[in-house]
Amino acid sequence: MMAIPKDLIMELVRIVLYVVGFLAFIAVNAAYLSLLERKVPSWFQLRYGPKEVGPWGLLQPVADGIKLCAKQLLVQKGADVALFKLAPAMVVIPAIMSAVTLPFSETIVARNIDLGLLLIFSLSSIHVIGTMLGGWASCNKYSGIAAARVVAQNIAYEIPLLLVMVSLVMVTHTFNLHEIVNGQAGGFWHWNAFRLTASPLMPAAFIIYFICMLAEANRAPFDMLEAESELVAGAFTEYSGMGFGLFFIAEYANIVVGCSLGTILFLGGWHCPFGLLPGLHWFLIKMYFLCFMVIWVRWSFPRTQFYGLLNLSWKILIPFALAHLVLTSIMLKLL
Amino acid sequence: MTLSELKTQLASLAEPGALISETDHAKRGTDLDVTVSAGKVVAAAELLDTARYTLEAITGVDWIAEKQIELVYDYTLWESGVRVAVRSRISRENPAIPTISAIFPGANWHERETRDFFGVDFTGHPDMSPLLLPEDATFHPLRKDFGA
Amino acid sequence: MSIEAQTIHRETFVLNLGPQHPATHGVLRIKLTMNGEYVEDADPVIGYGHRMQEKMGENRTYAKFLPNTARMDYVAALFNTHGYVCAVERLAGITVPDRAEYIRVITAELNRIASHLLWVGAFLIDLGGFTPLLYTFDDREQILDLLESITGARLTFCYYRFGGVCNDIDEQFISGTRAFIARLHSRMPMYHALITQNIIFRKRCEGIGPIPAETCRKYGGSGPVLRGSGVSYDVRKNEPYSIYPRLDFNIPVYQECDCTARYKVRMDEMVESMRIIEQSLDQLPAGPVMAEKVPKLLKPPKGDCYFNVESARGVFGVRLVSDGTDKAYRLKLRSPCFSNLSLFRDCSRGMLMADALALLGSLDLVIPDIDR
Amino acid sequence: MWNYLKEIITGSWSLCVGMWIVLRHAFRRPVTVQYPYQSVKLPARYRGHIQLKFDPATGNPKCIVCMACQRACPSNCIALDGVKPEGATRKVPTQYSLNFTTCSLCGLCVESCNFDALEFSKEYNLTSQHKKDYQMMDLLTYGREAKK
């Protein structure tokens, strides 16, 4: 019998721990962001929001989860059964996998990959295909329209997003998220969002990133694919029970990943704004602040029109992202 | 076009001896009340269209004792608030009247509604399917002999 | 166009919008023939909530039909009752005491504000913005509380009677109304900042859903839809009834013909309605609220008459034919939404679906009013 | 170019203003009423279902069975009957039932009553699993129970 190397066992334990940890982290976040999604608008709208299940409605997500699990997963006549059932998984798995390379603090990171940034963007493109398949396989005209919309929307928003990323990588000289964060240590004036020495358009770049993240996660005001006053529930119209639940989890997982990435790339990750006590807590504070922003934006504005969204991307975001890219390269050459 | 000009023009459409009266707006809500034959309804609509009137409603009244159905077309002129009621009486047994939906497309629905309720056939109407009643309805509820 | 392009162009599909759909506000069904996201043809299918109100008007006495009037346009119920009682009064030759006329105008204009507030919220829901609905409902609740305190109901008021109103208003109502007007005045800048100025709202409404004035004339469109198309037609001014000639107010008119114009007309109308209410409260005379000698069983003389009121949605007309008995011989109810919806097919052609739904929302439809 | 930038700036500013307004509301007290725990005060004229008024001295209903309410009801949902006891000057109701399933709460019956014998109930928490409970609401007993 061959002795198993101790390193391998340690590695296996580490992997299992991280997998469990991430799953729990994403699931808890999805659950409680969904509660926040109902509580925050209730404050904005002069009402109480969920408050019956548990104190302050804290057990509401649990009740929702039980309800979703208890419901039958219906597959309607004419649907492509295999794709219909595959789609929720295709949406939720990449979202969770993206968390692998995210450095939550100096030490907490599952895999510090040199091309981490690239990996996240490649994974985030998969959920678009999943949503499209879900809409397409539903055999419902509303879902079909939504499936077509989601592709057009995501193609439009990948471009400014990646342009911003290219300029960011030019500034940081690395794809490694851990190193990107460490490049921003020592106070908020070192954060990429405020690094005006690299390019005066850096704050604009952060805003472009935020807008693109909203569009990528299909959040209001860019929630074309589930525009309920137009398309009922868009791509998710025919899903019931946990099929819908997975899309729901994926939406919040995407928000968490997107906000984490925003924190890492632009807001200095786990570093304190004043150079004190770096650690996980700063990361979480910044990330949840961004999550709050996402929810706040959603409940403030009407939905954009589809061509308005494309106009915004092609006429405003892409020119600005390109200008930012050019400026960055000039500054890089000069300084 | 003043009201009196309109009156003379409408009078040329009305049948000899038919009623054309200037009514008191405060008491009746209409300024001009004219009865024309079924064939002249379209001509009246054309006349009022050129005078820039708008069609407010088309409705029927079932005069069962006289075995007639009266159709009332209410036209209004926006600028002055003048209202002209054009009436036409047709046989109750086989009610048919030409459509004015080519002149006033808004009449399309009003005529369909009138067909639903009174069974009046508007000849030349593009789509006479029931509007408010179920699509298989064969009854006409506003006829006086329809049991409530 | 090549043959290939033609065949591609013909590839349309039918989308069944409703009867249960978030954007149709009730049981309205629209058969959309879509070319991709473009609407090729929109055929509204109505009648799901049809109750044959006109027949009910014929087989019950005049007074017994009063509760029914509140159940057509339930969002602005007082206007329907107003039109109906005015038509009967015109036919029966009843004069209404001044105080009752003033109370009618005050309550009707309050109802108009409530209806427009509801519309603003619901329109924003159509556009995907949720929060304004709750704010407008907050204000609308104040009106409903006021109206409930004098009529006893929040929606189906049944307040006007032939010859007056059934209950007098009290000091509490008057002070409450003044307080509400002050409150809504202070809220208007907030609505304008939150909604009117909002770039997303502007982009979604400006130039969307044009309804030319000529289309309105051909279809009989009326109300804010018409005034948003640049025609200054308001029954209150052009064919005055009640005490409106004594009051000083403007008719907001916008020339743009688009959703923004219709939105702005309604926002301005709320301000004008507040002016009307304030003036009416100032001028409110003392006296009875019911005409004397109105028989319990009303038998108007033979004849027919027409009466129009300016409802929150447009022209609400009543054509009444009496044969001298205690029941109407024929009661035609001309609903504004019916005509306003009939022009949707013409105007939505070639629009994007989301824009067509914005247009549909801007028409301010109440489906039971269409179906009657 | 200038217009392009101006639109971006005014547009972004309008979005910021909108978000600020929404955030400001977050610090206000909720205006909703938590129904089972709280309830709003009903106005004096609240139109609930009708109930009979009782003479506080004798405990008998004030109703004299004049049938005015029954005649005034548009939905025919009031049924009442009464007898004239020996030696009494007026009738007393022996049965007064309301079909609440068809009642539209219009209040015409209360208005028609010349003897101040009918009033609106303030009860709105009415629920039952059986239709018949509200098809024949016996207001004679209901009113007495409510009094107790």
- At CATH's second level, what is the architecture of chain B? 2-Layer Sandwich
Please report the distance between the alpha carbons of the first and last residues of chain B. Answer: 45 Å
**What sequence of helices (H) and strands (E) makes up the elements of chain A?**
HHHHHHHHHHH
The order of strands across the largest sheet of chain B is 1-2-5-4-3
Please give the radius of gyration of chain A in angstroms. 21 Å
CATH superfamily of chain B: NADH:ubiquinone oxidoreductase Nqo5 subunit
What is the chain-wise order of helices and strands of chain B? HEHEHEEEEHE
Number of domains of chain B: 1
Low-confidence stretches of chain A: none
Distance between the termini of chain A: 61 Å
The percent range for helix content of chain B is 25-40%
Q: Which fold name corresponds to the CATH topology of chain B? A: Beta Polymerase, domain 2
Count helical runs of chain A: 11
Mean pLDDT of chain B: 83
Alpha plus pi helix count of chain B: 4
Number of strands of chain B: 7
Oligomeric assembly:
heterotetramer
Q: Please tell me the overall pLDDT of chain A.
A: 83
Question: Biggest interface pair, residues each?
Answer: B-C, 38 and 43 residues
Unreliable spans of chain B are none
Task: Provide an overview of this structure.
The complex is a heterotetramer of chains A (335), B (148), C (372) and D (148). Chain A is 66% helix and 0% strand. Chain A is built from 11 helices and no strands. Chain A has 335 residues and is mainly alpha-helical. The longest helix of chain A has 39 residues, at 6-44. Chain B has 148 residues and is α/β, with parallel strands linked by helices. Chain B has one domain: Beta Polymerase, domain 2. Chain B has helices spanning 3-13, 25-28, 41-50, 107-118; strands at 20-22, 32-35, 54-63, 68-77, 82-91, 96-98, 121-123. Chain B is globular, with a radius of gyration of 15 Å. The model of chain B has no long low-confidence stretch (mean pLDDT 83). Chain C has 372 residues and is α+β, with helices and mostly antiparallel strands. Chain C has one domain (3-371): Cytochrome-c3 Hydrogenase, chain B (Orthogonal Bundle). Chain C is 49% helix and 13% strand. A 3-stranded antiparallel β-sheet of chain C has the order 1-2-3. Chain C has a 3-stranded antiparallel β-sheet with strand order 6-7-8. In chain C, a hairpin with a 2-residue loop joins strand 4 and strand 5. Chain D has 148 residues and is an alpha+beta fold. Chain D contains 5 helices and 5 strands. In chain D, a hairpin with an 8-residue loop joins strand 2 (78-83) and strand 3. Chain D is elongated and about 100 Å long. Chain D starts with a helix and ends with a helix. Chains in contact: A-C, A-D, B-C, C-D. The B-C interface holds B 25-30, 52, 54-57, 59, 61-62, 72, 74, 76, 78-81, 83, 85, 104-106, 108-109, 117, 130-134, 141-142, 146, 148 and C 46-47, 50, 52, 54-55, 58-59, 87, 90, 93, 216-221, 231, 233, 235, 238-239, 303-308, 315, 317, 319, 321, 329-330, 332, 334, 338-339, 342-343, 346, 371-372.
